[in-house]
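Deviation from plan, reported transparently: magnesium ion complex.
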Amino acid sequence: MSDQVLAEIKNLHTYFYLAEGVVRAVDGVDLTIKAGRTLGIVGESGCGKSITALSLMQLVPSPGKIEEGEITYYQTIHQTESASTSNVIEITKLKPNSREMRAIRGNQISMVFQEPMAAMLPVRTVGAQIMEAIMLHQQVNKVEARERAIDILARAKLPNADRIVDTYPFQLSGGMRQRALSCNPDILIADEPTTALDVTTEAQILDLMRELQREYNMAIMYITHNLGVIAEMAQEVAVMYMGKVVEQTDVASIFRNPLHPYTQALLRSIPQLDDVMARAGQKKRLETIKGMVPDPYSVLPGCSFHPRCPQFMEGVCNEVEPAVIEVEPGHIVRCHLYASRSTKARAN
Ligand SMILES: Nc1ncnc2c1ncn2[C@@H]1O[C@H](COP(=O)(O)OP(=O)(O)O)[C@@H](O)[C@H]1O
Ligand SMILES: [Mg+2]
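Because the crystal trials were delayed, the predicted structure below was used instead.
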């Protein structure tokens, strides 16, 4: 069942109320997370990627707050090999520190952070954390769970897995922690997990994530500013700009047929993409995106990309907020250029 929906984010708004003004970090985001699939979230720094992920885990840092929207988690509890029940959990209705929310965070939705040290509970051994996840999903006793935990660590290419199982996260090096971390949740959120690592370790971590995904049908939300990594890891991509998803489609379409001028600019600005672009038949043309991301307190009328957009239309883009348009099935964009190309409009 690789298309099973595990989580749905609907109309999510997460704001920070600061003395300087309101930061609309996440401003109406819809995303669907499916078992066995990787959803890539891409965009420049500050566009709301991390806060979207932290909202899903109820870990928005103060003074941030989920203002509006729903996050539904479809939790599966395996009772025996063949029988399971499912629970529908409204994450936004749970208190961040409630037992239920902490249990979900510890076991079923976990996150590999930019700063890996913060990601594991420092007070419990690596083994205890993995065993708990295993026992929640599979009918095994402690001894078996421990063996499986050692096996998972060994396959994560950690030396002396039988010893690491009894260590605390702070006793491991950064790279080791990254590996130990990605063990066995339903949903793994990877927030620029390899930014601080060398390329060899990065390749190993990416391989490991793919392997664990195949084995456990894990869903991955992969956050990065690097479209090259997206091409390697994800099946579906959401491009974010100033708290909104401005384009979303499958990974092939984002490279072959990028619609939003922001996506097009991102693609042109990324050097690692030469190969990917060449394969997709696009010309190699490296440039930086014009202008800067506006300050986070500003609320721009119309499309928030309009001051930087090479295809800006006066009187439209700076006045009317673009609606979500489904240009072809499964390919959505928020841009006035496509106003006449909605599949819905065409169907009428
Ligand atoms: N703790 C915080 N306090 C105030 N503003 C924050 C905080 N964390 C994030 N923000 C703001 O929210 C916006 C989105 O941030 P973030 O999701 O971290 O971006 P990304 O992960 O895409 O780089 C940014 O404008 C950022 O400045
Ligand atoms: Mg971030």
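Residues 115-120 have pLDDT under 50 and may be disordered. We consider this an acceptable substitute for the interim report.
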